[in-house]
Design brief:
Elements (H helix, E strand, L loop, with lengths): L6 E5 L5 E3 L2 H9 L4 E6 L6 E4 L1 H8 L13 H9 L1 E4 L5 E3 L2 H6 L5 E7 L2 E5 L1 H18 L5
Antiparallel strand pairs: 1-7, 2-6, 3-4, 3-5, 4-8, 7-8
């Protein structure tokens, strides 16, 4: 399986259209897909995405019943917010307004590879989160803080 990696910053136009970076599109299209599945992150101020096929794995954890058994609250929350956004002929998606608000996106978005998934951040927020993560890793591993 191909992974999402690297960081790419693209502009968001007035209609909420955002170009998906070519390397990320290649991963999606290698699976025979023509869309990306996105949801607001449950843990950070960003969006998380992948191909719809990766999120369908969440349904394997859910019981096929109306009765509530063990359940997976995280899967329920993700599936409830998940949107399958079609790639247009130029490799763009249209971000829903509520997704723009959830990730505090305005004019630019940073796509950040994270293995089987990717994240979409407001660039300054991503830089701050990355710096905090770097400081934490350095501290945990005896490097300069």
């Amino acid at each position: 399986m191909q992974a999402f990696f690297g960081t790419f910053t693209n502009k968001i136009d007035a209609k909420g259209r955002l170009s998906v970076p070519a390397p990320f599109r290649a991963v999606i299209q290698s699976r025979g897909l023509t869309s990306v599945a996105l949801h607001p992150s449950l843990f950070e101020t960003c969006l998380e995405g992948a191909g719809r096929d990766r999120f369908e794995n969440l349904t394997l954890k859910q019981e096929d019943s109306f009765a509530r058994a063990g359940g997976d609250d995280i899967a329920d929350l993700i599936m409830g917010d998940l949107r399958d956004l079609a790639l247009d002929g130029e490799g763009r998606i249209v971000l829903p307004d509520e997704f723009m608000a959830a990730a505090k996106l305005t004019t630019e978005a940073a796509f950040v590879g994270a293995g089987w998934k990717f994240q979409i951040w407001e660039p300054a927020a991503f830089n701050a989160a990355k710096a905090a993560k770097r400081a934490k890793v350095l501290k945990q591993n005896g490097g300069p803080a």
